[in-house]
Amino acid sequence: KKVNVALGDRAYDIFVGPGLIANAGAYLKPLLRRNRVAIVTDETVGKLHLPALEKSLDANGIRHSAIKLPAGESTKSFAQLEKLTDWLLGEGIERGDLVIALGGGVIGDLTGFAASILRRGVDFAQIPTTLLSQVDSSVGGKTGINTRQGKNLAGAFHQPRLVLADTDALATLPMREFLAGYAEVVKYGLIGDRDFFEWLEVNLDRLKEGDVEARIHAIVKSCEAKAAIVAADEREGGVRALLNLGHTFGHALEAATGFSNRLVHGEGVSIGMALAFELSARLGFCTGQDAARVRQHLARAGLPSRLSDIEGPLPDADGLIALMGQDKKVVDGTLTFILARGIGDAFITRDVDPGRLRALLREREPA
Ligand code: NAD
Ligand code: ZN
């Protein structure tokens, strides 16, 4: 299956299916000016999936070298960026050569950013190996690293030439990481596609059990949804903000838990989406039934969906609101919210009564 991201002369294809890493050489070969690639991965993915990629490159006569960086968010740093650019230049990577990101969003974001600055821009391809990176970070061309001031504060728009989303890679992914990506899948249904959300309700168990056809469908639908939004608004001047559904709340919760293992990104987004629907219902935009249905689906998937699902202490409502204000999406000190008129009908507003927001966050148990 294939999704095209329609961005004019920067358009590219996302292939989705099994066996893509094992056949990567054949997909990559047409993009190469000389038969040479540099692979960037992390220690974990390098152990699990690099050998199959290298084998496929060998079979296609493509020369390759690889660097394995430490796994984890802290790799999205200036220090690792410098190490990576040094290595790529040392390997003699020139314009016309291809850099391959093999891994999750961390490797994709860092490698894409390095590719964007190396010799003022070299080509890169993504082989995303987490569900989150397959449905989210490999679509849209945002690349970057974290700085001491916060997440993703240094970066560039740099579109990949090709994305290979191999469903086989998900077989080794821990369930918690799978579910974190699944929260973003649910998000696409909630933003603009009620039928897809209902399909997810029916097919949740198949997806979790690893049914390949179901997983392909969910990934393709998600990539199509994000690709359509990105094609309409590549630089986030308007509709792209819809993709932040659940993220203003989610980001505050991640910050409140110190960006630690207590709450990973997708888990924060899950609670954030449930809160966004709860707030939408209380403000009279959507029905209480829809809000309950969203929360129940997330909970049934195994995701946290209430503030009380977070273990340990949390800041109070005002503390959380202050953390929401530190989100980089804040303009002139006004919070932007993504609310919904119903499942599949999200909209952007900057007009939310602070009192209602405080009341929502004061309860550790939204109805
Ligand atoms: P990640 O890259 O850290 O991967 C999560 C963990 O899973 C890592 O420990 C990794 O080694 C491991 N892993 C990866 N693939 C595996 C596999 N197939 N089997 C077993 N283990 C595997 O994190 P992520 O969740 O993929 O991505 C999160 C990052 O993505 C964040 O930095 C976030 O800012 C970024 N992001 C970027 C965009 C964008 O538009 N660029 C969008 C969303 C998120
Ligand atoms: Zn997200």
Automatic annotation (TrEMBL):
GO terms for cellular component: cytoplasm. It comes from Parvibaculum lavamentivorans (strain DS-1 / DSM 13023 / NCIMB 13966). It comes from the Bacteria. The keyword Lyase applies. It is an enzyme of class 4 (lyase). Zn(2+) binds at residues 184, 247, 265. It catalyses: 7-phospho-2-dehydro-3-deoxy-D-arabino-heptonate = 3-dehydroquinate + phosphate. Pathway: Metabolic intermediate biosynthesis; chorismate biosynthesis; chorismate from D-erythrose 4-phosphate and phosphoenolpyruvate: step 2/7. Belongs to the sugar phosphate cyclases superfamily. Dehydroquinate synthase family. Pfam families: DHQ_synthase, DHQS_C. Its main location: cytoplasm. Binds 1 divalent metal cation per subunit. Can use either Co(2+) or Zn(2+). This is 3-dehydroquinate synthase. Catalyzes the conversion of 3-deoxy-D-arabino-heptulosonate 7-phosphate (DAHP) to dehydroquinate (DHQ). Residues 181-330 form the 3-dehydroquinate synthase C-terminal domain. Residues 67-179 form the 3-dehydroquinate synthase N-terminal domain. Its cofactor is Co(2+); Zn(2+); NAD(+). Transmembrane segments: none annotated. NCBIfam families: aroB. GO terms for molecular function: 3-dehydroquinate synthase activity; metal ion binding; nucleotide binding. NAD(+) binds at residues 105-109, 129-130, 142, 151. Gene3D superfamilies: 3.40.50.1970, Dehydroquinate synthase-like - alpha domain. Keywords: Amino-acid biosynthesis, Aromatic amino acid biosynthesis, Cobalt, Cytoplasm, Lyase, Metal-binding, NAD, Nucleotide-binding, Zinc. It is found in: Cytoplasm. One of its GO terms (biological process) is amino acid biosynthetic process. The keyword Nucleotide-binding applies.
